[in-house]
Amino acid sequence: MSLSDRNVSNRQDPFRVLVLSVVKHSYVARGVALHPRFELTVVADDANNPDWVHERNKKFAHEHGIPYLRDVERAIAEHDVEVAVVSSEADRHCALSVRAADAGLHVIQDKPMSNSLAECDRLVEAVARNNVRFLMWNRNFLPAVVQAREAIAEGQIGTLRAIHVDFYFAKDAGPPKGSRSPDQPPIDWLEALLAAHVTGGDGGVGSEPMGELSIEGCYPLAYLTMLTGAKVRRVFARTTAHFHQLCVDNDVEDLATVTLEMEGGLVGSLALGRIGDASHPDIGEIKLHILGSEGALVISEARPEIGVYYRDQPPQEFRNQRLLATDNDYLLADDFARAIDAGSDPILNAPTSRAITATVAAAIESGRTAAVVDVV
Amino acid sequence: MTDSPIRLALVGSPEGAVNWRDAAQRLRGGRFTVAVDANATAAAEVVGAATAVASLEAALKTHGGEFDAAVICSPHYHNPAVARLAADAGKHLLVEAPVARTRTEAEATIAACDRAGVCFAVGQTLRFYPGNQTIIDRLSRGKLGEPGLWRVHRWREKQSGSQSSLLEWIYGDVDLAICMFGARPTEVYALGRPGAGPAADYVQLHFGFPAGGMAVVDYSATLPPGPGYESASMIGSKGAAYADDHHNTHLLYRGGNPAALISGQGRGHVLHELQALVDAVANQTAPPVGGDDCIAAHQVIDAVVSSLESGQVVRKQGDRYEPV
Questions:
Q1: Residue B151 is nearest to which of A166, A176, A298, comparing CB atoms?
Q2: What's this model's pTM, rounded to 2 decimal places?
């Protein structure tokens, strides 16, 4: 049975899923596994990866009772898989996704799409050429974001004029800026990110250092893209390593602001940063400020949430728990299943993901040059 | 330091006088003795002044010995002439921002004060609002570390009839951003729609500051009739502060979706800035917001206008701003 034969709208049996590297966040694969239309079948990665990659892949496979193969092509050939979930280091994202697409697999990939626009272009082309579906994992189904989308779609604030997104993570990233003495070597990016795996702060794991715009920018820009439907044309950005010695030593930003000029005269901004544990009682302020011709919306992305506080509470425990947050995972998987069934686009497809990466790249360049930069 | 209360003349409209009523009652070491306005009797009654005079010229001529300082809250296009008249007569000044239409006018006013040896203080600058005072205090005490990102949304209802000028709209925030970072911005980028003139209903400012600091401020006059919305946050290297109407909102249930009741910050800022003037005059010290601050704000506003007109980043080169 060919893949195209499987993509019929009335199909209800689960899609067999190849977990194609799961060395960073496992939430993508776990989120997919929540949905009854997806069945994790096998974990695979290339044999020439370092030991830590294999250890993490193997651990995930063990937890889910599925095999781990150090041979991607063999896994595809022997396990009759239809969907690949890619959650490798960012610098391998596109290469793995292209291989999956070329093998006829639909692809769900963790963010960012890539740190290279050329790689993004290669992936967009591969997805189109192979007529497979591609989903960039995102947070667009969080209830507050959905509520914003519905209010806009209903015309409650009229025609959109401006949109501003704050996206702060109140997390540390190792020792604070200025804490390294001159006789100490710079902090090694990969070593630091490998150590951060236990706290989930390893979104930028890989050989290439990444700033917060690259690591997290996909989320707020995905909100913006979904809510406005407009492409970003020009940006002006300020970027700096303001908090963490890790970012200073590796010349990447942990704080950024971006002025956005979009299609149709729409304007906006993005404020984003890994601002440190002490800077917010919750995981961080994540808000949308949206102006229309007839009104405005102020949206707190974290809500609804429940606050829980008690004596001797561990400092790492989240005091404010999001309600309905896991719905986002389910709804993303559900959306992707529908996209496969219908041959339609999921909520964040390859071209849009590429456009987001291009906006991030332009912002980083603007931050370095202090000039307005066109998004290409 | 003088033990005698500093005597104040309020120069402005009765509408402006209302803003000073609570401050007049709570002020320490100073009191309003003269009100100057076309409808001075009403203004005098509001602030408890014994003397009401129709013009500053008349006040200086016939009641000049009854006040030490002039609190000028007339429209800014009148301010320079009014302020210079008072300064030339040896009166200390608190002038509501914007002090003048242009930097040149502001410099002339400040020069008049310098010549006369009187205090020049700027009022209505946003610095004295309780939320901003708290942030400035925590920054100055190092609690928040180095300032990194200052983010402001300031929205209000659509304006009917005469609209605020860009200068009136952004002066307070420009001054506040300079205060927060302790320096003028090194880069200025601004967006506006449909232009920088009085018809603009949206302006967005993006500043870069030394040592990587940054500020983004957006203004909108597009809300439906009703209260506005304000939000400000300062992200520092050690901590952050958030002052947000969204956090300070109550709910009113009357059927359908509940209405939002927003608690404002009150008018305590008026007392703070008036007290600062009185204390500066009494102690013969510099006011917290003075001539240098005023000129710095005008320089940056000129850079904002340049960026709006050119669509490009304007960069600080030495003491000047030049398009990139």
A1: A166
A2: 0.94
